[in-house]
Amino acid sequence: MKYKKRQFYIENVSAERIARKFGTPTYVYSYDKIKNNIYNFKKNFKSINPLICFSVKSNSNLNILSIVNKFGLGADVVSKGELISALKAKIKPEKIVFSGVGKTIDELKFAINKKILLINVESENEIIEIEKIAKKNKKKINIGVRLNPNTDAKTLKKISTGKKENKFGLTEKKFLELLYKYKKSKFINIICLSVHIGSQIMSHIPYKNMLNVVNRIIQKSKFKFKYIDLGGGMGIQYENNSNKLNYAKYNKLIKSFLKKNNSKIIFEPGRSIVGNAGYLISKIIYIKKTNSKNFVILDSAMNDLIRPALYGAKHRIVPSKLNKAKILKKHEFVGPICETTDKFLNVANYQKINQKDIIVICDVGAYGMVLSSNYNLRPKPAEILVNNISTKIITKRQKLINII
Ligand code: LLP
Questions:
Q1: Nearest C-alpha to atom 6 of ligand 1 is from which residue?
Q2: Which atom of ligand 1 is nearest to the CA of 156?
Q3: Residue with the nearest Cα to atom 5 of ligand 1?
Q4: What CATH number was assigned to the domain covering residues 2-29+275-403?
Q5: pLDDT tens for each residue of 64-101
Q6: Is the omega angle on the peptide bond into residue 308 within 30 degrees of 0, that is, cis?
Q7: Has 192 been annotated as catalytic?
Q8: Could you tell me which CATH number the domain at 31-271 has?
Q9: N or C: which end of the chain has fewer CB within 10 A?
Q10: Residue 77: which of 249, 270, 306, 332 has the closest Cα?
C-alpha cells in the first residue's frame, strides 16, 4: 500500500484526484505494477525459458493487452472475441493458444485461419470438427490435448478445474486413447499436452501432484510432446500476511520434470500478472448505523466487482485518506444492489469515515471489470491507466443511453 502524506497513491496519482477527475466507481491500473509482475514472473522461471501466454480472460482491456505484448508475453484466449482483441493488441499468432471446452465451429475456423500456435482441445468431438476443417483446407493443424489430471488444486471449489468431476479436459484413459487414434492422422498433429488445475493456488504441492500425474502419463504414452502447457493458477496475496505461492519451488519442480521430458513449457498466467495492479475507487453514499454494525454503502456493487458475491473472495478496502480516529464497531461494506450477497467485506473496526468519502478496493485487476455486468441497469465503470503522474482513460464510463 502506498500512502504519501496520509493520501493513498497509485504510482504518483492520488485516489482522491482520480475520483475528482473521472468520477466513481472507477477501475484504475498501475502500468508499473503490471511491468514488475511480468519481470518478476520471467525472472523466476528464466531457467526453463517458458512461453508465457497471458490469460486474456482475467483482463481483456486492449490497452492492458498492449502492455502485456510490449513486455513479450503471448496470449491464452477462450473466445473469438478474446482472440480478435489479442491480435488487435499486436500479439503474434504464433504466441497465442486457444483453450476452452466449447469452441464453436466458427471460432475453430477463425483460429485456424489466423494460424495461431495451438488449439487446446478438450473433447473428441472437437478433434473431429478440427479434422473436418483441416481436410477442407488441405492443412495439418497443430493441437494440444487437455488432460484432466484429477488433481486437487486446494483452492476455492468454484475455481477448481482439475478434478475428475469438473467438465475440463479428458480422463487419462480417453487422453491416451485419442493420442493413439490420431497419431497417424493426416490432418491433426498433436504437439502439446495441456493441463490447468485451478486458479488462486497458494502452494506448490498441487502443482507437484499435477506434474507427477503428467509425467506418469507421458511415460506410459511413449509420446513426445513438443509443448507442455501447464496453464496458470498462480495465486496472489489478497490479504495482509497471507501465504504466497513460492515460484522458486514450482520452477524447481518443473526443472526436474524437464529432465525426464524434453519439451517447451507454456504458462497461461492471468491473475499473477494483473491482479494486484488494479484498484476500484468508490465513494461512500451512506453510512447506515445499527446497534450491531455500521453498513457502509458504496457506489460500487456486485455488478462492478462480483468476486466477493460469487466466490466469497475478500478484497482489502482502504481509505483514500488516513486519519487516527478508530471506530470500534463492526463495519460491513456493501453495494446498493437489491441482493443480500451484494456485500464486499466485514471488518471488526475501521477508521472514522463519512458520507462522500473515497475508498479503494484493492487487487481487482484480474476478474474484476471482465466480470462486470449491467445488473440493476447500472452502467459499467470507467477504466483508467496510471503511469507515473499520467492518467489515461482506457475505457469510458458507460452511459445510461447506451444500455437503455
Ligand atoms: N488457463 C486456463 C485454461 C484457465 O481456465 C485459466 C483460468 C487460466 C489459464 C488463468 O488462470 P489464473 O492464472 O488467472 O489463475 N473468475 C475467477 C477465476 C476463474 C479462472 C478461470 N480460468 C476468480 O475471480 O477468481
A1: 232
A2: 25
A3: 196
A4: 2.40.37.10
A5: 999 999 999 999 999 999 999 999 999 999 999 999 99
A6: no
A7: no
A8: 3.20.20.10
A9: C
A10: 270
